[in-house]
Amino acid sequence: MAQRYVVIDLETTGNSPKKGDRIIQFAAVVIENDKIVDEYSTYLQPEQSISIFIEELTGINNDTVKDAPLFEEVAERICALLEGACFVAHNVLFDLSFLKEELERCGYEPFYGSTIDTVELAKILKPTADGYKLNQLAKEENLEHPRPHQADSDAYVTALLLLQLKKKLYSLPVMTLKKLYKLSYSLKSEIAELIDELLTAKLSKAERHNPAIETFRGLAFKKVQPAIANSEKIPEFPFSEKEKVDRMKKAFPDFEARKGQLAMMDTVYHSFVQEQHSIIEAGTGIGKSLGYLLPAAYFAKQQDTPVVISTYTLQLQEQLLSTEVPKLKEILPFSIHVVLLKGRANYLSLAKFERALRGKEDNYETALTKMQILVWLTETETGEKDELHLTSGGELFWNRIKSDGFTSPDLQIPWKSKDFYEKAKLVASKADIIVTNHAFLMADIMSSNRIIPEGYLVLDEAHHIEQAASKYLGKRLNYISVKTMLNRLGTSDQKQLLRKLEKILSNKGITPERTSSFIDGKLNDFMYEFEQLFQLLSSEANKSGKSSGPHRIPLKVKDVKEWQGISFLVERLIDNLSDIKKTLFDRICMLKNEELTKNELFYMNDVELLISGMNEIIQSLAEFFIHPSDQSIYWIEFTKSVPQHGITLSSQPVSGNKILWDSCFVHQKSVIMTSATLSVKDTFSFFIEQLGMQNIPVHTYNFPSPFKYEENVRVLVASDIPEVNTISADDYAIAVARHIIAAAQAANGRMMVLFTSHDMLRTTYQKVKATGFLQEFTLFAQGLTGGSKMRLLRNFQNFDKAVLFGTTSLWEGVDIPGEDLSCLVIVRLPFSPPDDPIIQAKCSLYSREGRNPFYAYSLPEAILRFRQGFGRLIRTSKDRGVLLVLDRRIMTSSYGSEFRQAIPPVEWLEVNEDNMTYRIEEWI
């Protein structure tokens, strides 16, 4: 007999039944034979007052439940509903614990049957979802959810979701279901019973093989059709404005010609043909992406040579592939092959995953992630990590199964034809346009085994290229990664790699000269002194007086008397780790000519990876503490609330421009550098200097935004906000919070607040929340409310009354058109912190050259970032918005006019808090 499911949802007065919170609404939906056969819901009298917060959340108030029954009056019916059923809920532990408390309170037996958590089930079956809240999943599955946070609506939608997930589960290949079944016993709810039920049903039917799925070595994959080579004739590039507009209108009947975009197309095409370098500033609304994609497509096809497009942010990369490239394909009169290429670690190693599936030491997070990947393999064409929504434990597991260059050939060869990274390289070699990111571009350029072809390159978000290059040319060493790596090795009495390696040697009858106890001793010595080193670094960092957020301070070992013995400590660390590395390497060499099983080869591969990692640690320790370069900056990144565990040592060249152009781009035939913000005071000299291009022939172009900012934007400057240096940081945050609350209420949400400091963001966000004035708003805070930047932005757009607090990366690369963003708040003019080690080093360099570092570096950098922030507000010609600046320096300082002149002409108004509210309401 098929399982009977009862889907439950509760609304309650709070989160803790142990603290006396009670149920105010109960709802159940009964499913039999995959059909909803019964529903039951009722309000309940909680015998306590319902808070304003719960009323706002659920719409249920004290009047709603005034005449509702007590729980004891409906308990018997609830028990009858649940008898013999499987208990289903979205976050089942919450609903089950509440129900258990209430049933026991009323003298009834609690529910002891099977449970299914639809959150857990959705994580497995929808491994690429943006999130697993009920309203997010409902939207993704096109399920109507008219009244979120009302139990009857939530229960009904959860029931529909369960049916959808069951269909998805049943559609999976038998091979995948069998593997999911074995792993499902590590889960928290009884999903194993559901899989068993569907697997039995599937095996009882002789179903035809799904032609979209292929199998290999026990795994099922989505079958990817190879691209068919096309020898079509490519027409001439459309030089006339009419030709381009006609071409655009074939794809977009309502297309409005933008002269800047059409001129940019010609500029890019001519630059490629004439093999010249060009800098192009393309204002917001120009259509920059198609401005370079269309000429790149014609040129790549005509010359039979790929064009590489590199972006800084994943946001833009995703936008190119999901939005701009499909538009391009509609416009072109020929087919175009565009591929995305990322760094190797972004791809799944199938050889490693195959081995990992055999492991039996699964904790909950590992088992869940394995199940996610098994399902994902039936859907993905790329094998890229960014497609997956992994937990923090899943991220750790990914590090064990990601692609790298150390996998043993004996293990890799069977998978070579299926390997995702190898496929990505092969596809890229046949592509017309290759999309990548600045970080991977830098890594590839510096590599001896290049994948990305030289020749024709477009650098979008080009203002970040110097930063990306400098970061790549530097080093990083952190406490957690070193400890994690050496814990993976373990000592000979732990069930880790060293013990497994010793067992292999013993099985082969090999007795190394140095015993495992020698490695144990060296490892213990290293761990003890490594701990000492980072305690010393943590102590020094905490003397800086910085607050609890993430911070950077210079690493100046030679300048600090208390650290005089540090070089001896580091030398001992290097000696100990070198001895461990050599001893492990000698053991690997002894096993090279032995016949090894697959598992033994995998362990050998893992040890070789560790040896490589140890070598990097040795080199980094030597550079940071013994032989630092005069050409590099060294600093400590730390979080005060997390002592040595939060320490990272970092370095980069003082100035990337000295080596950037000659190292990275000198062999390119044509480099197009483009962004909406490259010029300062109508000149590109600051950008040119940053890239070390002072002596390189380069053409510069500026295509201003077509938007009518004077009609669509109002800029308000708070006249009653105090200067930050005249009051305490806490009082300043209170003043900022007060203005943010007033602005959010006036704008009815749809507001983004940009900070220059993580500390100020955190403090202000907490003060805004503490007031309770924005309880009806959904508040998102970068670095505090979880999720990646892109997920944060998507979630922000999903709520009507939302406020997004952002810093650093949200100043740019964010595209929120229409009414989703109507008010932008800039808390401080975006100067980099003067005590930041990188800024200090760069300013010192300018001073040594006899130049004023503020006017030569700090001010131009801040102006560019201000322009980037302003660009978030208006994304289409129909957008309207308010920019609120909470920094009076923009009106009062000698340099304030340079910020005001850096953006298009708009009306500037100085307003107090009351007038600000009126102006925002009036405009929006």
Automatic annotation (TrEMBL):
<dbReference type="InterPro" id="IPR027417">
    <property type="entry name" value="P-loop_NTPase"/>
</dbReference>
<dbReference type="InterPro" id="IPR013520">
    <property type="entry name" value="Ribonucl_H"/>
</dbReference>
<keyword id="KW-0067">ATP-binding</keyword>
<dbReference type="InterPro" id="IPR045028">
    <property type="entry name" value="DinG/Rad3-like"/>
</dbReference>
<protein>
    <recommendedName>
        <fullName>3'-5' exonuclease DinG</fullName>
        <ecNumber>3.1.-.-</ecNumber>
    </recommendedName>
</protein>
<dbReference type="InterPro" id="IPR006310">
    <property type="entry name" value="DinG"/>
</dbReference>
<feature type="short sequence motif" description="DEAH box">
    <location>
        <begin position="460"/>
        <end position="463"/>
    </location>
</feature>
<keyword id="KW-0269">Exonuclease</keyword>
<dbReference type="GO" id="GO:0003678">
    <property type="term" value="F:DNA helicase activity"/>
</dbReference>
<dbReference type="InterPro" id="IPR014013">
    <property type="entry name" value="Helic_SF1/SF2_ATP-bd_DinG/Rad3"/>
</dbReference>
<dbReference type="InterPro" id="IPR006054">
    <property type="entry name" value="DnaQ"/>
</dbReference>
<dbReference type="GO" id="GO:0005524">
    <property type="term" value="F:ATP binding"/>
</dbReference>
<dbReference type="GO" id="GO:0003677">
    <property type="term" value="F:DNA binding"/>
</dbReference>
<dbReference type="InterPro" id="IPR036397">
    <property type="entry name" value="RNaseH_sf"/>
</dbReference>
<dbReference type="InterPro" id="IPR014001">
    <property type="entry name" value="Helicase_ATP-bd"/>
</dbReference>
<keyword id="KW-0378">Hydrolase</keyword>
<dbReference type="GO" id="GO:0016818">
    <property type="term" value="F:hydrolase activity, acting on acid anhydrides, in phosphorus-containing anhydrides"/>
</dbReference>
<feature type="domain" description="Helicase ATP-binding">
    <location>
        <begin position="247"/>
        <end position="537"/>
    </location>
</feature>
<dbReference type="InterPro" id="IPR012337">
    <property type="entry name" value="RNaseH-like_sf"/>
</dbReference>
<dbReference type="GO" id="GO:0006260">
    <property type="term" value="P:DNA replication"/>
</dbReference>
<dbReference type="Pfam" id="PF00929">
    <property type="entry name" value="RNase_T"/>
</dbReference>
<keyword id="KW-0547">Nucleotide-binding</keyword>
<dbReference type="GO" id="GO:0008408">
    <property type="term" value="F:3'-5' exonuclease activity"/>
</dbReference>
<feature type="binding site">
    <location>
        <begin position="282"/>
        <end position="289"/>
    </location>
    <ligand>
        <name>ATP</name>
    </ligand>
</feature>
<comment type="function">
    <text>3'-5' exonuclease.</text>
</comment>
<dbReference type="Pfam" id="PF13307">
    <property type="entry name" value="Helicase_C_2"/>
</dbReference>
<comment type="similarity">
    <text>Belongs to the helicase family. DinG subfamily. Type 2 sub-subfamily.</text>
</comment>
<keyword id="KW-0540">Nuclease</keyword>
<keyword id="KW-0347">Helicase</keyword>
<dbReference type="GO" id="GO:0003887">
    <property type="term" value="F:DNA-directed DNA polymerase activity"/>
</dbReference>
<dbReference type="InterPro" id="IPR006555">
    <property type="entry name" value="ATP-dep_Helicase_C"/>
</dbReference>
